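lol ok so funny story. i was supposed to be doing the assay writeup but got distracted and ended up predicting the structure for this chain instead. priorities right. anyway since i did it might as well share w the group, maybe its usefull for someone
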Amino acid sequence: GQDGHCGNFNGMASDDDATVIKARMRSQPITAADRMFHRSTPLQPAPRHTLAECKQDGAKYRKAMELCKVSEADLVGAEASGCVFDVCFAAAHYAAQDALYKK
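and the output, tada:
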């Protein structure tokens, strides 16, 4: 079967939790012969950004608010704050992509 970061595709969301997946991975390690990629790159933990961090850069924050077409009052919703977050920490084109989901 298939298993990994996205789960095991058995239709049971309850066994696709990160803790359960990690436990399965430790109990059934992949042998070197079965690996698709024979050289691996160690993963480095990514920084955890917040909207508060974005607000510290006033110009970037205002631009994100403008591109996402939201006001401070709109940021209570996950959709609006997600758009602002995406623009602040990824790129401006995410405002247009996030807008696709609003329709």
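Residues 6 and 12 are 12 Å apart (CA to CA). The helical segments are 18-27, 51-56, 58-68, 78-89, 93-100.
back to the writeup now i swear
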